[in-house]
Amino acid sequence: MWRILLALVFLGGGINLVAAAEVEISNVWMKESIPGTENGAAYFTISNSSAAPVVLIGANTDAARATEVHQHVMRDGMMRMRRVPELVIEPNQTLVFQPGGYHLMLFGVKKAFKPGETVDFVLEFNDGDTATMTAVVKTIR
Ligand SMILES: [Cu+2]
User: Fold this and answer.
1) Record's InterPro entries (predicted)?
2) How many angstroms separate the alpha carbon of residue 21 from the centre of ligand 1?
3) Which of 15, 101, 113, 115 has the greatest number of C-beta atoms within 10 Å?
């Protein structure tokens, strides 16, 4: 398990900083901007190695007007996104944010993200803790 996370850190190139000692964040990335859109999405892997649940309640970045935790859900045969106001990460659980699943949704992106750029985020938890992380922008081609 820990070996896998470490491998992701090295392979993903994402820089991860951990505020809450019990939370490990790795493989932080986002897609380059699609011309003409002002929304974006960021992805990462988060692990809770503590004995208590960790509750993610939000995120933000200076690179966008607003950021929300989102999930894709299938409803009436259609993939839709919905906001997740409180995301519980159980003890020893690892959640992978990825296309088609959990993601950080960015609204009002201030300038287009280009491959190789980095974008800083702050994750907010319900106990007042925060964690900073840096996403690497990947090409979509
Ligand atoms: Cu979304």
Assistant:
1) LpqE-like (IPR007410), Lxx211020-like (IPR058248), PCuAC_sf (IPR036182)
2) 28
3) 113
